[in-house]
Amino acid sequence: MFGATLSRWTMSYFAAALIFLAIGEMMMVLGFGYPASSIDAPETLALVHTITLGWLSLLMAGALLQFVPVLVGRPLSFPHLGFPALVLLVVGITSLVLGFASLAGTEGLSPLLLPAGATVTIAGLALLVIVFAATLWHARPLPLPARFVAAGLGSLVIACLLGGTYAFVLSGLADAPGAIDLTLEGVSLHAALGLGGWLSFTTMGVSYRLLTMFMLSPDRERRSSRTVWILGAAALGMMVCIVPMILAGFAGRTTLLVVAALASVLAIGIYLADIVRIYRGRKRRLIELNSRAGIGAFAALIVATVIFVASLISGQIDKGVGPLVYLITFGWLTGMGLAQLYKIVPFITWLECYGPLLGRMPTPRVQDLVVETRAAFWFRLFYLTVAVASVALYLDNAWLFRASSLGQLIAVNALVFEFVATRRLSNVPSNLRLPGGPTGPHLFFPSFQSRRQP
Amino acid sequence: MQKTESEELVDRIRDSLRTIVDPEMGSNVVDLGLIYDIAVQEGGLARVTMTTTIKGCPATAFLKEAVQNCVWYVPGVEYAEVRLTYEPPWTPEMMLETSIAQ
């Protein structure tokens, strides 16, 4: 019988991810990258990869290490690969970002950092893909949320292969015509598979499970949710098919891309209707802050989808792509990530500190590890800054963007302090703290003494 | 052991299990409907069948161990055996109304 497992390295992934997020926010405050530079400038690519790989991918990986076993009801395969993957990713992503900075003309940095960083990053991601793919493989037939994760992993693999190719072309190490064609024409595919497939589609699948779990909504596979998976997986499959079409020089790529875009929009529409049903069908009358803060992320996804459709119809997708990607990255993915961290961090902390004491002494609830009123203010500030920054990008107002990024940096750091307070058990009533002192677990390193961790 | 005594022991075990609070739900495991069955046999052998809200929940082993320890210390229990099952799977309808507001 499958029992409890606590992912040993999840909190370390979260800590590294939050550091990358703070660095990315500081880059935006200082005017490094878009909108001060053009959207395809090396400075922007440094910023984009700090956020999408450093923050969002490490966050997603850490969360999956803990929740893939919950999704499939069996332990993780090769859990010991979690730590080497983290080391490779932190080193690789840092090197990749410095490689982009080198292309941007930063002195003292070798452009070879770019392909070296890409290689090490891909190695780290490959280890994670092995862990998750093996776990999913042994858990067949997969429940629906896990099938979203499988499609997300497939997208990650292709996005990585494309990204690795670009790194070698941009640094001058590769000049094969196919690689150059992919670099010139495939960047939007790389972005769509990374942001849309790996990060968004996986988030959608996991959200079905987590929201149902946390709000006690009816937990059954709906036909509509299966339709979301089919449409989304088909859209991602079409995008993958465009890669060999570029290499072979086939026509009809734009048509396929438009069909994939329409399928994605339809999938998002049905997904959002499902989410409304989950919120409305909940048994838990009071919803906790993680689920409330998630509403802001869903709102950002709705706005982004509307803008995307409007841009497609008006034929101005090129003009609106910057604000659109910003809204998806920060409003939807970062908003959802921070909101769920607000639940996952106290939950894991509770398991580490109080799990072994359950039934032996009075233990606090998971909710006793957080102070929602304080954090709710920072979540409001976060979403306000996302809205203002998105408008600033539409108005091409770099000053307003930097000012709102400063507000966002403050909100993110305040939330990080809330996570630290949770880890330190600072919010727990004094009579329920650990016996022998108020100290909590290690902030972000695993407790090697714990007997329950794999 | 007479039937009435056995029923009393089951009641004592159930009351005792009410001290174990599910960390996420904030209600005790009995009112949440996580305890499917409590059976007491000759010689103080108590068998508890329980579930968790989610299969694969990271708190599963802690909850099971807490239930086992709790039952063991109930006067009259000589041996406690806890079985974890997901048949039928837990649903929110199994909760007492008082637990839902949590």
UniProtKB/TrEMBL annotation, chain A:
The chain crosses the membrane at residues 12-34, 46-71, 83-106, 112-136, 148-169, 189-216, 228-250, 256-273, 294-317, 323-342, 377-395, 401-421. Keywords: Membrane, Transmembrane, Transmembrane helix. This is Transmembrane protein. It comes from Ensifer oleiphilus.
UniProtKB/TrEMBL annotation, chain B:
Signal peptide: none annotated. Residues 11-82 form the MIP18 family-like domain. It holds the Pfam family FeS_assembly_P. This is Metal-sulfur cluster assembly factor. InterPro entries: Fe-S_Maturation_MIP18 (IPR052339), FSCA_dom_sf (IPR034904), MIP18-like (IPR002744). SUPFAM superfamilies: Fe-S cluster assembly (FSCA) domain-like.
